[in-house]
Amino acid sequence: MSEESLPVDALPEYAERVLEVAELIPPGRVMTYGDVAEWLGEGGPRQVGRVMALYGGAVPWWRVVRADGHLLPGHELRALGHYRTEGTPLREASRAAEGHVPRLDMKRARWDGGERAGEGGGRAGWDGGERAEDHT
After folding, report:
1. Taking a C-beta distance cutoff of 8 angstroms, is the pair 11, 22 a contact?
2. Helix, strand, coil: what percent of the chain each, to 5?
3. Longest dimension (CA), the chain
4. Is the dihedral angle over the CA atoms 50, 108, 68, 71 positive or is it negative?
5. Residue 18 neighbours by CB under 8 Å, 6+ apart
6. Which DSSP string corresponds to 30-51?
7. CA 74, chain centre distance (Å)
8. CB-neighbour burial class of residue 32 (10 A; exposed 0-12, middle 13-18, buried 19+)
9. Per-residue pLDDT of the chain (136 residues; tens, 9 = 90+)
């Protein structure tokens, strides 16, 4: 049985962990594929991207992004709608870039995992897969 045909309740363990991280990202913020892999302390951007491509439809997939801020090809307009609804910082396309969609403003939109439920903080105390609250 291939991974694509597994029932939802039989997700591979790594996929479950990736999706859990995606669900933690607050509205209006994003993490890169590499950030998610670093958070988990295993895998890499390609593995996270594969999980999101196969299983990400059930989580806020638009919050796990490319490091360059370009929107996911083929899903730009859907993602853009979510970003605008959530107030995610964007860099508008220049007038010379007619027909191009905005990019994410990664400096302002990137989430480091430390601002959950009104918490302050940041990546301090986060080494690899451990979350900031694991160090309190």
Report:
1. no
2. 50, 5, 45
3. 49
4. positive
5. 36, 40, 43, 48, 51, 52, 55
6. BEEHHHHHHHHTSS-HHHHHHH
7. 17
8. buried
9. 444 444 555 679 999 999 999 999 999 999 999 999 999 999 999 999 999 999 999 999 999 999 999 998 899 999 999 999 999 999 987 766 556 789 999 999 999 887 553 443 333 333 433 333 333 3
